[in-house]
Amino acid sequence: MKIALVIGHKKARPGACNKDAGLCEFEFNEKLAHDIESKGELEDLHIVYRRTYSKLPQDINNLKPDVAVSLHCNAFNEKASGSEVLYYYSSVKG
User: What is the rounded radius of gyration, in angstroms, for the C-alpha atoms of the chain?
Assistant: First the structure.
């Protein structure tokens, strides 16, 4: 199975920041993606960096992955916790 692992945000626009840890979303997501890759359990894993928001779908689609996972951290109200899964509701494969 080919997996596209998308790092949420980018270095120039790092996303949400945790004030206590002094860590922003991009930095956290990038480390997490490389930690997942280093486990070696997923043979066909491709880390995707966002060049621009408009080019991201094309970058992912060019890989022709079976699944795409985008890493993000929820900073809704500085109290949010847990996990969230979004999927395209009319996708036969989803």
Answer: 14
SS3 state of residue 31? helix
**Rounded CA separation 90/28 (Å):** 31
Helices (H), 20-77: 25-38, 56-63
The pLDDT tens digits of the residues spanning 1-36 come to 999 999 989 999 998 888 888 889 999 999 999 999
Say if CB 12 and CB 53 are below 8 A apart.
Answer: no
Q: What is this structure's pTM?
A: 0.82
Q: Is 55 exposed, middle or buried (0-12, 13-18, 19+ CB in 10 A)?
A: exposed
The label of the residue with tokens 């596209």 reads 4
